[in-house]
Amino acid sequence: MAYTRGNLAVKENTAARGQNPRYRETTKVVTHRSPLPVREKLLYMATIIFCVAIAAGLLWQNSQLYDIKRQVFNLNTDIQSISAQVKELSIQREKLEERIPEEAAKLGYVEPQNEGVHVQVPTASIR
């Protein structure tokens, strides 16, 4: 037995109408959703805005950390290159210090016989 407009006790009249009905009777169930109240919409919107703000804050913080780490890396590479330059320059300085006596002898300078320099200050000029 078919379900006819909410009542199962009704008999079908297809036998009285004939074997082949010209049209098929169908029913369509339509459900209407009630719209969300304004407060609930605002609550959802506030929740979404809050979540987006938290995500944006985390992304900003991570970008700041990335920048700081990048600066530290750049400073470390600069320190390494400068320390290599310092080593090369200290080696060059030592080589030049070894050549000082030779160059002085070529120019006519003589090493003093006495070690150190003695300067005599008159006692009358001291007050």
TrEMBL record:
Keyword annotations from UniProtKB, A to Z: Coiled coil, Membrane, Transmembrane, Transmembrane helix
Origin organism lineage: Bacteria, Bacillati, Bacillota, Bacilli, Bacillales
Protein name: Cell division protein FtsL
Transmembrane segments: 42-60
Residue ranges of coiled coil: 79-106
